[in-house]
Structures are given as structure tokens and as C-alpha cells.
């Protein structure tokens, strides 16, 4: 999960991109980067950390130009090194910079193909650099002479769709030409476009979420369709084309559960209203399974679960209270690397108001339960604050399978619900009772808000991978590289070693 933005304007874009990344900060806290285009020249700066920490005035001044792209990074492939922060750059053909949200499932094979067939060197273990080089190669193959137009770029994206597997929402800047944006044929990761009118004409912004557009005065135009490519030249002329053979929209359901901001609209569905619906359906299940007299008060785990908890309390005619106060200067624990860091961060991030718990039977509502670390700590905090009974409810179904499309749920052993019954999970998080959302109810929560949405990417709940290339062997291989014992090299080192071995075999 990352946040990306691209802008083509009639004036400097460095501040626009910076502000957009602040609005997308929730999508990645590991690194941030901006690249701008002026004439045929790129300027780029990227560093580890939050947007506000990565950039200084001197960095912003070094980013001139009326077009550019940016990214906030949350690593799911490669490492957290500064070298793998985005955007990435290649100098041929034309000069291309690219930022990517998603995860390629066949990036290792593509890396070998890049060396063996395309004669391109990949310098890092980032799937985004692989994607950039596939795009560059296909543009080169589609280009005749030195000219470049939208039809050439769309031909290249069509060829890319045939080679690349996984999830990808992309913004790319071609030096001296314009901005290219495209989305994978399943539309797994979100991408939308907006426009603004100035005295010099229309300007365009492409971003992961509509909140980035609206927060900067751009009017939401529409979502980028699955498989579609959009090209905005440096004169702000826009062209689009469907580049996939059989595009079908399968948006990631976890975007609506947790990842996206509630004030965003994704594929025509308000994230906030889908979360209200999650609370409504969860209330119906709780009414069936928990006697009404067993609950005194409903409390959310801030912040993502608040709409669901409010609607749940309303439907069950129960008191709603804010029992936990959030320190907003601590990052989102789900996307923090390392189990111990997440565990320590829970107590730093949340503080319980003892008077709201003392002597009460409390229903705690969270957006989801992934590893269980946060849930267990929160249940213990409620008990320490005097709760006589703690019931835990999840607005999402049990997370039982790895997500390979850009969310860091890489191994089954890390997922508390994998291989466990709900009763066993309840004991693990030390709650008195546990209620999960049903998967059909989660899907209805989204389709009720936008009936046009019928299909969803829900692999972390049901183990069904829509791209059709994720097998048990694939998952076993990913897990084996990540689970190597300390001292024998990290998972990324293992992948790197295997790739180097395969490349060394090429004549």
C-alpha cells in the first residue's frame, strides 16, 4: 500500500505535490519522494520518513517545473532502504520517472526476463523498478524514430498488461512530453483523476484517493478504469484509452475496511458510508449472537472503526462512548514493520479513560483483526481500566490468508485467524466474546453504497486471488524467504541470492 500523485499544471507543481502527499500520508509512512519535469530535465528528491520530515525548503526549491509525480511509500516488496524509495528513473527511452502503488506477483521472473531478453539492468529488489523497466522497454519497442504520442504510449501499456501480473496503479512522467497514468486490468488498487480551472486553463491531478484532489481545490472527475491508460501532455491536453483485453473491476475490499481515508470516494463508493453499512450489518449479527443485556456500552478503537461503531450502537440502541484517546503523533500500527514495534506502539498510541470502563460490560469495535497484537493489548487495557467484561467485534471477516497485492500480510503464521476457530482467536486476544463480520455482509456494505460494484478483491478473507497466478507453491515460497532464521539472511536477501544465481546462468 502506497500513495501516489501526478500533476500537470500551468505553474510550479512542487508545493501541490507536497501537499497532496500530506493528504495521502496514511497510505505510507516509510519514505516519500517527489520528481518534477521542466523542459527535458527531471529533478528528484526522496528520503525515508514522513513527508514533513523528508523535505526541507532547500529540497523544495530544487524541484522546479509545471509537471511531476510523488509517492509516499509503505514497503511490501524489496526493503526499507532509501535507495528503494520512489519515484524511480530510467534515462531511455526519452527519460521516464515512475511511482507505483501495488505489488507485482511475477516481478522475480520479470527481473530475469529484463536481463536475459530485454538487456535491462535492475538495480534494486523493488518490484516498482521492474515495472518501470517493463514500461520503458515496451515504449521503446512501440516507438518509431524520435517521436512520441499518446497512441504509442497506449500500445506500450497494452503490451505491459500482457506481461505483468499483480496489482498496480501507476503515474509516470515522460521527459518533455507529459504524464501517463494507468491501472491494472482488475483495478485492485485505487486511482482517480480531477481537474482545476485557472486563468491559464485546465490543470489535472491523478491520485490514489479523491481526498488528495478535493483537499487542493481540484474537482473530482472520475476513477481511472481498470486497464485504462490516461495521458496528459505538458500543454494539459488529455487523452485516454482502454488498454486491457478483458478488464473487470475487482477493487480491494480492505481499502474500504481500513486503508483509505473515510472522506475518500473509491470507485463510486463513499468509504465513510461503506463503514456505516459495516456497522449496520455487524449490529444484526451481534443481535443474533450476544444477549442485549450483556452489553453496557459500545466503544470504537480509533480511528478507522469509528463510523462502524457509531452505526452499530445506533442500531442496537446502546450507549456509544469514546473510551480510548489516540495520540495522533504515533503512526498507524498496522503498517509499522515488526511485531514488537507494533506491540510497544499500541500503548503509546492509545490511552484509556478509566471512568468509561469501570464496572461495565464493554463492546469494543475494531475495523479488523490481522496479527492480533493490537487487539490483545487493547483488551488488556480495557480490563486494567476496570471493565468487568470485554466483547470484541471486528467490522471485517477473519483475515486468514496473505495479501499479495500491496498489503503487508505476507505469511499465514503471522495472521491470528489462520488455522484457528473464532473461539481460539477469542482466547488468544483474551476477550470474553468475539464477533466477526460475515464476508457476504462486507461485500453488501460496499455494493449497497454503489450497486454497480459487484466484484471485490477479498483474498485475505477467502484465499481467492483474482489474478489467477497465486498458487500454494507461490505462497510457500514467499513465506520460506521471509521466515529464514536470523543470521541466515533476510527474506529479501534470499530472493536476491536466487535472482543473482539465475542471472549468472544466463549466457
Brief overview, please?
With 507 residues, the chain is of the alpha+beta class. It has helices at 14-23, 51-54, 57-61, 107-116, 127-142, 150-163, 210-214, 253-259, 271-289, 306-316, 339-349, 354-357, 373-384, 422-428, 439-447, 459-462, 472-482, 491-504; strands at 3-8, 31-38, 41-48, 67-73, 88-90, 96-104, 166-174, 178-183, 192-198, 201-207, 219-223, 228-233, 238-242, 265-266, 269-270, 297-300, 319-320, 324-326, 350-352, 361-366, 389-394, 433-436. Mean pLDDT is 90; it is low at 485-507.
Task: Tell me what the structure shows.
- By secondary structure, the chain is an alpha+beta fold.
- 34% of the residues lie in helices and 23% in strands.
- It folds into two domains: 2-248, Aminohydrolase, N-terminal nucleophile (Ntn) domain (Glutamine Phosphoribosylpyrophosphate, subunit 1, domain 1), CATH 3.60.20; 271-326 and 347-453, Rossmann fold (3-Layer(aba) Sandwich), CATH 3.40.50.2020.
- The protein is built from 18 helices and 22 strands.
- A hairpin with a 2-residue loop joins β9 and β10.
- The longest helix is centred in the middle third of the chain and has 19 residues, at 271-289.
- The chain is globular.
Amino acid at each position: 500500500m502506497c500513495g501516489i500523485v501526478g500533476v500537470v499544471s500551468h505553474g510550479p507543481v512542487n508545493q501541490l505535490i507536497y501537499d497532496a502527499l500530506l493528504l495521502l500520508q496514511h497510505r505510507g509512512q516509510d519514505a516519500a519522494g517527489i520528481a518534477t519535469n521542466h523542459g527535458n530535465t527531471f529533478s528528484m528528491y526522496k528520503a525515508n520518513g514522513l513527508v514533513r520530515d523528508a523535505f526541507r525548503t532547500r529540497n523544495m526549491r530544487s524541484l522546479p517545473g509545471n509537471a511531476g509525480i510523488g509517492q509516499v511509500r509503505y514497503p511490501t516488496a524489496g526493503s526499507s532502504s532509501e535507495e528503494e524509495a520512489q519515484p524511480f528513473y530510467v534515462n531511455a527511452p526519452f527519460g521516464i520517472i515512475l511511482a507505483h502503488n501495488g505489488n507485482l506477483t511475477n516481478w522475480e521472473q520479470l527481473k530475469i526476463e529484463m536481463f536475459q531478453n530485454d538487456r535491462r539492468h535492475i538495480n534494486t529488489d523493488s518490484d516498482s523498478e521492474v515495472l518501470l523497466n517493463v514500461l520503458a522497454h515496451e515504449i521503446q519497442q512501440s516507438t518509431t524514430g524520435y517521436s512520441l504520442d499518446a497512441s504509442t504510449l497506449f500500445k506500450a501499456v497494452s503490451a505491459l498488461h500482457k506481461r505483468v501480473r499483480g496489482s498496480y496503479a501507476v503515474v509516470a512522467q515522460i521527459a518533455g512530453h507529459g504524464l501517463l497514468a494507468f491501472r491494472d486490468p482488475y483495478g485492485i488498487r485505487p486511482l482517480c483523476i480531477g481537474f482545476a480551472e485557472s486563468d491559464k486553463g485546465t490543470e489535472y491531478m491523478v491520485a490514489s484517493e479523491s481526498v488528495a484532489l478535493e483537499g487542493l481545490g481540484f474537482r473530482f472527475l472520475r476513477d481511472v478504469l481498470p486497464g485504462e491508460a490516461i495521458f496528459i501532455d505538458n500543454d494539459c491536453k488529455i487523452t485516454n484509452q482502454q488498454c486491457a483485453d478483458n478488464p473487470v473491476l475487482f477493487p480491494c475490499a480492505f481499502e474500504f475496511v481500513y486503508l483509505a481515508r473515510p472522506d475518500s470516494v473509491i470507485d463510486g463508493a463513499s468509504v465513510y458510508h461503506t463503514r456505516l453499512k459495516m456497522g449496520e450489518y455487524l449490529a444484526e449479527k451481534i443481535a443474533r449472537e450476544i444477549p442485549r443485556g450483556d452489553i453496557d456500552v459500545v466503544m470504537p478503537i480509533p480511528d478507522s472503526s469509528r463510523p462502524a461503531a457509531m452505526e452499530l450502537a445506533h442500531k442496537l440502541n446502546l450507549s456509544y462512548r469514546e473510551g480510548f484517546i489516540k495520540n495522533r503523533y504515533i503512526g498507524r500500527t498496522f503498517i509499522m514493520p515488526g511485531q514488537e514495534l507494533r506491540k510497544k506502539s499500541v500503548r503509546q498510541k492509545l490511552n484509556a479513560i478509566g471512568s468509561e470502563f469501570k464496572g461495565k460490560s464493554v463492546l469494543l469495535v475494531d475495523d479488523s483483526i490481522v496479527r492480533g497484537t493490537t487487539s490483545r493489548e487493547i483488551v488488556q487495557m480495557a480490563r486494567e481500566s476496570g471493565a468487568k467484561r470485554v466483547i470484541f467485534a471486528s467490522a471485517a471477516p477473519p483475515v486468514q490468508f496473505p495479501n499479495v497485492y500491496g498489503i503487508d500480510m505476507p505469511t499465514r503464521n503471522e495472521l491470528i485467524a489462520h488455522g484457528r476457530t473464532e473461539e481460539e482467536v477469542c482466547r488468544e486476544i483474551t476477550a470474553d466474546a468475539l464477533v466477526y463480520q460475515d464476508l457476504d455482509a462486507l461485500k453488501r456494505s460496499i455494493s449497497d453504497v454503489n450497486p454497480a460494484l459487484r466484484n471485490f478483491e477479498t483474498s485475505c478473507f477467502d484465499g481467492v486471488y483474482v489474478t489467477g497466478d497465486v498458487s500454494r507453491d507461490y505462497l510457500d515460497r514467499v513465506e520460506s524467504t521471509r521466515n529464514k532464521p536470523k543470521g541466515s539472511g533476510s527474506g529479501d536477501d534470499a530472493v536476491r541470492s536466487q535472482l543473482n544465481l539465475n542471472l549468472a546462468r544466463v549466457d
